[in-house]
Write a structure and sequence with these properties.
Length: about 200
């Protein structure tokens, strides 16, 4: 089974499809090395919030993608990850602009890592700064969390593609960012909050 770094590079070369979220929002990775990633994004009117500036959630998605790729690029064969926490500071309003999210693994332990990302505009002005705490998953913990590009290439990991354990799980695209999952949000969210609905 290839490492996530290999799959990300294959996707960047067009040999594998990008994760669906990249097509939905319109970002693309332009550079990746172990522990480092750059994602570019063209902010347009379709990404605006009700007051006309770039929606903060879109900035968060782009930063999350860069940080996820940077962290994924450090993983060994058979490993995947999830994001435990993400924090972002919005520092400058954006309308229509080409943005660059530059992410680096600040500290990578055996299981938990810290990743930081600066989102810059065309003039290299700081638009947002984000940090993310990621957790490496191995063995049964990683069931059902294969990279989108690996699944798209017809790959299966573990015994018979993780067997029945991962069969009913949703397909997630983790190299461009991940999440601890809806169950984790539901467990922490107060009664009546949006995370508990549905």
């Amino acid at each position: 089974m290839p490492k996530m770094l290999d799959l990300i590079r294959m996707s960047m070369r067009g040999e594998l499809p990008p994760p669906p979220v990249a097509a939905l929002i319109g970002f693309r990775p332009t550079a990746v090395e172990p522990g480092h990633a750059v994602v570019e994004f063209e902010a347009a009117e379709r990404h605006a919030n009700p007051v006309g500036t770039l929606h903060g959630g879109i900035l968060c998605d782009v930063a999350d993608a860069a940080m996820g790729i940077a962290y994924a690029s450090t993983l060994e064969e058979g490993e995947t990850f999830t994001t435990l926490e993400l924090k972002i500071n919005f520092l400058r309003p954006v309308w229509n602009a080409r943005l660059r999210a530059v992410a680096d693994v600040v500290n990578g332990g055996r299981t938990i890592g810290l990743v930081a990302c600066d989102v810059l505009d065309e003039g290299d002005r700081l638009v947002a700064r984000a940090t993310s705490t990621c957790m490496t998953l191995r063995g049964d913990q990683s069931a059902g969390r294969e990279a989108w590009t690996f699944r798209s290439a017809g790959g299966r990991s573990g015994a018979a593609g993780r067997g029945a354990r991962g069969a009913g799980r949703s397909r997630r695209s983790l190299p461009s960012g991940g999440s601890a999952g809806r169950g984790a949000a539901r467990a922490r969210a107060p009664r009546g909050s949006p995370a508990t609905a549905g």
